[in-house]
Amino acid sequence: MSKRKYKISVIQLNLNDVAENNLKKCISWVRDAASQGAEVILLPELYSSHYFCQSEDVDNFALAEPLYSTSFIAFSELAKELGVVIIVPFFEKRMAGIYHNSAYIIDADGTEAGLYRKMHIPDDPHFYEKFYFTPGDLGFQAIETKKGTVGTLICWDQWYPEAARITALKGAEVLFYPTAIGWHPKEKEQYGENQYGAWMNVMKGHAVANGVFVAAANRIGLEKYIDGTEGIQFWGASFIAGPQGEILAQASHDKEEILIAEVDLDLQENVRQNWPFFRDRRIDAFGDITKRAIDK
Fold first, then answer.
1. In this structure, are strands 112-117 and 98-106 parallel, antiparallel, or unpaired?
2. Residues 191-216: what's their mean pLDDT?
3. Which residue from 177, 129, 120, 121 is spatially nearest to 153, judged by alpha carbons?
4. Separation of alpha carbons 226 and 53, rounded Å
5. Of 155, 173, 204, 223, which residue is the catalytic one?
6. Which of 53, 62, 201, 285 has the largest CB neighbor count within 10 A?
7. Section 126-141 average pLDDT
């Protein structure tokens, strides 16, 4: 059962390094977050490597790991030692030819509370994720942990109100979004402010529409490893928002940081009592939402 108040944290990092170094780095930062009182801690998307989806290259499948191997072992031991919940996004090798963009939800005793596989897979310039990832097949989930009931969605999932709604309706108090999003350097001047603003606004909207806390952990830094390209400049700006979309903590665009904020379930209940969006939903009129398009 969730405590009425608990502290959550997002960690914003530059992860443009090899897996061993990224693992050591993340372990160190999780320790720091726990020492500051964090009880549920979120890492950025695909924490263990640079963002390899900038190209379609079969060699990158070597970065994947089977379930319950390196990442799970390391963070399970850490979660148990520190008594915290850790959300660990990783590149999952399910079997030969089937890979997922996944996240462990590791409970405070080191056991697996849940596993989430990214449902929505993008295919954009330098975000060629459809080449690597099979769409998730575990659905949207609210995971009970020793600290609270949480939902995990991953990056591209953040643009879909249906994903946030279902996860909240299942009981998630917080929507955690591990993320790897940034600017194409040549587009930043013209489109950058609007792109970043849209990213913030859509997730703040999920918080408001569902009366939930929202936490997003992004990368920082320019990741440029393909000849003839400008790479991706990850824009950071990780944040935690409350159930009215209010910003409780916000990171910079370019620094490694730990954000911490308090989840207050009494506040959440009060917000939902005064803005009863769940009560007033016309579920009898929503059948068309399951259609690809509503043809005339």
1. antiparallel
2. 98
3. 177
4. 11
5. 155
6. 53
7. 98
pLDDT in tens, 212-249: 999 999 999 999 989 999 999 999 999 999 999 999 99
Q: What is the pTM of this model?
A: 0.97
The span from the CA of 39 to the CA of 262, in Å, is: 10
- Phi, psi at 256, each rounded to 5°: -75, 130
Q: Which of 7, 26, 39, 45 is catalytic?
A: 45
State the catalytic residue, choosing from 26, 53, 93, 118.
Answer: 118
Instruction: Enter the tokens of residue 274.
Output: 């005064």
Query: For residue 160, which amino acid is it?
Result: Y
- Let me know if 26 is a catalytic residue: no
* Length in residues, the chain: 296
Q: Are 115 and 152 in contact (CB under 8 A)?
A: no
Phi-psi region of 103 (alpha: psi -120 to 50; beta: other; left: phi over 0): beta
Tokens standing for residue 178: 């591990």
Q: Are 120 and 157 in contact (CB under 8 A)?
A: yes
Tokens of 260: 């911490």
